Amino acid sequence: MEMVEEHIKGILKNRKIHFTLIDPDEQTPQEALNIAEEAILGGTDGIMIGGSTVNNDEVDETCKILSENIEVPIILFPGNINSVSKYADAIFFMSYLNSTNPYWIYGAQALAAPIVRQAGIEVLPMGYMVVQPGGTVGWVGDAKLVPRNKPKIPAAYAMSAELLGMRFFYIEAGSGADKPIPPEMVGYTKKATEDMIIIVGGGIRDGEAAYTAAKAGGDIIVTGTIVEETNDVRGKIEEITSAIRKASIE
Ligand code: 1GP
Known about the structure:
The chain is an alpha/beta fold.
């Protein structure tokens, strides 16, 4: 497969992107594969693997079965240093920029770097920022959560992340959030950066919310919880991917 970052940029020349997040903690590897295959039929562009409370065997076994069966990129979205697998195509190598705990800002990264090198997977350097309500990742990551009514704060962090050489920036409301990231916050963040790929996730449950996030400036829209909740993964992902495609062409 072509390198994941080039693959992403290639798609972004024509339209915005959707990724499906699968938490290996929530189902067996075979069930994760079934979800991934349905999501791909629904138009998702890649599978992210991660969660706040996973163990390495779950990550490894899920990535292995996916790598043997699907063609879209498999990208690790690590919750900690135990979330690395050689069976993935790439990893979002991320710094949790608004954590108050140095471990999440740079400690875990230093500990994980040799493991990532050894796994031989592609590295996608990313700044990560958690906005209210923040959910589990806000709590686990000791975040100073961005207030929802302060849309310019992530923009300043994104600008600094780009100056430090990061190429991706993820604005996160927390998995299962009752409200997604406010669109003006996405807009300021996109405008504050030059070439960064802006990822938006947390609380996006339908086509309308996905459309709003893409239209506001999100390059990659991530959904996770909906594939755990719905009986019709393909139909639900289709609703979201067609809304993102609509936002791309308008
Ligand atoms: C979580 O942003 C992702 O890190 C996805 O959030 O589970 O709410 O879709 P949801």
